[in-house]
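Below is how a single chain appears once it has passed through the pipeline. First comes the sequence as given, then the structure the pipeline wrote out for it. We keep one example in the README because the format questions we get most often are answered faster by looking than by reading.
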Amino acid sequence: MLRMAFARRHLSAVRFGKFLGTGTGATFGPGDTDLTRWAAITVSDAPVRFPQWDAIAEEQARVDLEPLVSRGEWSGRSPFRPTGRKTDGMVVALTRARLRPTRALRFWRAVPAVAREVADAPGLLARFGLGEAPIGWQGTVSVWRSTADLTAFAYRQPEHRAVIARTPTDGWYAEELFARFAVRDLTGDRTVLGWIDKELTER
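Resulting structure:
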């Protein structure tokens, strides 16, 4: 945790970067936090390494991504440059939001039902929560077999569709971002990502 307080100096060479805490993504409350797992998101033209983190990590995973679609902002910026390309392969969905304090309770009440749906969604390979703070600055990362599986969950599951419909009217977010990425490479221990598919984990 002390390293996280001074971690930004390691991001000076990237266009955009964040060091983040993680959780299960089931409630987005303080009890959801996983103090054993930390994440970094970087946007750069060249591979980014953090040897000082690798040296103390028991396990690690790295996912190299190509942004396909991106809507919204993160810390007042549009960090990703989407290619618009379509892919039939594995994809990652990233959602990130800064909650309005006056609307947070309504949002948290809506989360558990959606979390149950995503846990049982066909094609889901992995998922976890992430955040810049334990409360109010949160997001999710999910890995899917294909764009078709991700789309089917997003628009056909009733609880998730209801949350999408409520978002503009309830005004939960002061800032929000959604992005979809093609997976170019995935290395390391997949269980770090909360991998669900045992067959693929053991390959």
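The domain at 2-201 is CATH 3.30.70.100 (Alpha-Beta Plaits).

See the next section for the split statistics.
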